[in-house]
């Protein structure tokens, strides 16, 4: 039996209090086995958390991790033009090897910034699952189906693949990989396909992850065509469910917020992407007040442009206040919960809290920095002042992924070089 002791630091507890404590984790079960007074626990190996704060590993509830290859390739355009003119032409050239290289880069970036779990939407999912396995992280993965612009055969093949991947990869990486069925969005998958394939996913108890109500352009066509709001349309198809979460949920009206709450459907809020693409401001405080589980995601690196969940927490707090026109809305404690416990609840992992019995997924923040001084309120610091680069150690499932800012699960230099090469060759092919 091998046990790791995270010792000498302060610990963020599930009720958001901070106490001096050591955390003992089992590397066999991957669980936290004790949180106790300093000096009372022993482990076979130690992680030094002195001058540090131990927090739950952050949960990135919506991303496209391999899109790191497109980081900075095209900025400053609205969603529709950006997708059609820049993103999709390049994505059409992506090979499995490109996706592996981009995924590894994204996972290294996440480990360095304290993220231990992600929910991803993409393709070549086996490559992403392999990369997650090597990274030692937890992930909910899936193949994203699009039917617009495809003939019936190609459209059906996409949806079949999304079902197949969800069935096949669930439980991969010793159970650290779970899966979702993924219709891309309510406007990019035709109604006849949703009505045929969503019941199949539900029959197999598959969770569902889709984009919804991201921009006004996604709302108007549905209202025009179906005479109902997008989430009412989604509910009519059976998409809204306790195991479903939608990315974005920016343009939702009160009736849709009620529908999300009644059906137990979650929301992955992506504040930086919503701001960068000028998509709008999600009514996050209203969603939370209604009882909707809201997590936080970075979305892909092309619309962010990084995968740092500390940036994302700060953005969520800031835009949440603007959206509510209320400086007390989406407060510091709320965004910390959104990035930890809420995200874990959306993804279905027993993580997101430093507590005996929970998954041993954690990060240690180095507090010994000018921008984290003085330490009046460490929850405030997590929301507003900590950067991803302040993370000293990252642990997932009891295994050390990064120790003293050195990533142990990948050769970081090699990952960066390979990703740069793949990105350069990809853009060259797309330009031809
Ligand atoms: Zn997305």
Automatic annotation (TrEMBL):
Sorted alphabetically, which CDD domains does this protein's record hold? ATZ_TRZ_like
Q: What class of enzyme is it?
A: hydrolase
Molecular function, one GO term: metal ion binding
Kindly state what the record says about how the cofactor is bound.
Answer: Binds 1 zinc ion per subunit.
- What is the required cofactor set for this protein? Zn(2+)
Q: Which residues bind Zn(2+)?
A: 62, 64, 211, 299
Question: Where does this protein hold substrate?
Answer: 91, 184, 214, 299
Which residues are in the Amidohydrolase-related domain?
53-400
What's its EC? 3.5.4.28, 3.5.4.31
Report the protein's function: Catalyzes the deamination of 5-methylthioadenosine and S-adenosyl-L-homocysteine into 5-methylthioinosine and S-inosyl-L-homocysteine, respectively. Is also able to deaminate adenosine.
Give the PANTHER family listed for this entry.
Answer: AMIDOHYDROLASE-RELATED DOMAIN-CONTAINING PROTEIN, AMINOHYDROLASE SSNA-RELATED
| HAMAP family, per database record | MTA_SAH_deamin
Protein name from the UniProt record = 5-methylthioadenosine/S-adenosylhomocysteine deaminase
Q: Which organism is it from?
A: Haloarcula quadrata
């Amino acid at each position: 039996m091998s046990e790791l002791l995270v010792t000498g630091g302060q610990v963020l507890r599930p009720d958001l209090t901070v106490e001096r404590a050591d955390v003992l984790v089992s590397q066999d079960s991957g669980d936290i086995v004790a949180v106790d007074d300093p000096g009372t626990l022993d482990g076979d190996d130690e992680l030094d958390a002195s001058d540090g704060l131990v927090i739950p590993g952050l949960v990135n509830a919506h991303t496209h991790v391999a899109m790191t290859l497109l980081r900075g390739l095209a900025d400053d355009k609205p969603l529709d033009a950006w997708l059609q003119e820049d993103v999709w032409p390049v994505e059409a050239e992506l090979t499995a090897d490109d996706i592996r290289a981009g995924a590894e880069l994204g996972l290294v970036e996440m480990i360095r910034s304290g993220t231990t779990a992600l929910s991803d939407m993409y393709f070549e999912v086996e490559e992403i699952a392999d990369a997650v396995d090597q990274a030692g992280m937890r992930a909910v993965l899936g193949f994203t189906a699009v039917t617009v612009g495809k003939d019936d055969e190609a459209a059906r093949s996409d949806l079949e693949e999304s079902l197949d991947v969800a069935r096949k990869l669930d439980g991969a990486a010793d159970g650290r990989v779970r899966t979702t069925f993924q219709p891309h969005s309510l406007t990019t998958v035709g109604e006849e396909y949703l009505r045929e394939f969503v019941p199949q996913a539900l029959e197999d108890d598959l969770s569902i992850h889709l984009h919804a109500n991201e921009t006004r352009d996604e709302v108007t066509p549905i209202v025009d065509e179906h005479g109902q709001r997008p989430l009412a349309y989604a509910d009519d198809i059976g998409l809204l469910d306790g195991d479903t979460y939608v990315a974005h949920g920016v343009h939702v009206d009160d009736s849709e917020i009620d529908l999300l709450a009644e059906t137990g459907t979650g929301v992955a809020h992506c504040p930086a992407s919503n701001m960068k693409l000028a998509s709008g401001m999600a009514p996050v405080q209203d969603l939370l007040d209604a009882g909707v589980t809201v997590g936080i995601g970075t979305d892909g690196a092309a619309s962010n442009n990084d995968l740092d969940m500390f940036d994302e927490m700060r953005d969520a707090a800031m835009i949440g206040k603007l959206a509510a026109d209320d400086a007390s809305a989406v407060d510091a404690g709320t965004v910390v919960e959104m990035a930890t416990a809420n995200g874990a609840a959306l993804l279905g992992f027993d993580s997101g809290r430093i507590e005996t019995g929970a998954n041993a997924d954690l990060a240690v923040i180095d507090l010994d920095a000018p921008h984290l001084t003085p330490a009046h309120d460490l929850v405030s610091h997590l929301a507003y002042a900590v950067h991803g680069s302040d993370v000293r150690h990252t642990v997932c499932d009891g295994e050390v992924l990064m120790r003293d800012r050195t990533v142990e699960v990948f050769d970081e230099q090699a990952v960066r070089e390979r990703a740069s090469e793949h990105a350069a060759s990809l853009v060259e092919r797309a330009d031809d």
